[in-house]
User: What shape does this take?
Amino acid sequence: MDESSGVGVLDKAVLVLAALETGPASLAGLVQMTGLARPTAHRLARALEHHRFVARDLQGRFVLGPRLSELAAAAGEDRLLAASGPILARLRDITGESAQLYRRQAGSRVCAAAAERPTGLRDTIPVGSVLSMDAGSAAQILLAWEDTDKIRRGLSNSAFSAVTLAAVRKRGWAQSVGERETGVASVSAPVRSPSGKVIAAVSVSGPIERLTRQPGRIHAPAVVAAGGRLSEVLRRSAQ
Assistant: This one.
């Protein structure tokens, strides 16, 4: 079947985005996956990066960019983002710490929504920030329930281990202390789709001085409850 729209440059840009859906890619990888000439693939990837449809990971590889999540929210079809505002605000108020919602995006994670602590020392993660999957409690959550091969690949350069992820699956929440950033601790819990798949992580983060080196003891119940409320919203919307 001919999938061409008749607008060549658009079709080629879609080829680049579709290739990145499977994970991070170097320029050589994009050329191989799309069949485009190297100069064309590079030009399109850079143009998409300029408009934030494409971003770069810590290794300089191309990944899907935050603009895609923003457009999904603007279209009014993203029930998770629509529900997350008041739930994150409540979590912030209960814990006294900044709250975030993260989604997996290829080989990275993106801050899809946030409720910042209004005053004092806080861990500020702007919405749209692209962070590594190699460290942090949210990364642990987003990786812990993946299939075996994805977990193995994800652990290759991570600050946490398979033992850590097994503990996360058992207790239903994750914590990190100085993993993503020195002096910062966090607690995260899963958000599940109606089918039970983990599709996001809800988190609180702040300085170790307040969260301590065992932040889960303080905040895990509130974070798990917030993840449960978001999961319930998705379950009800699917009925």
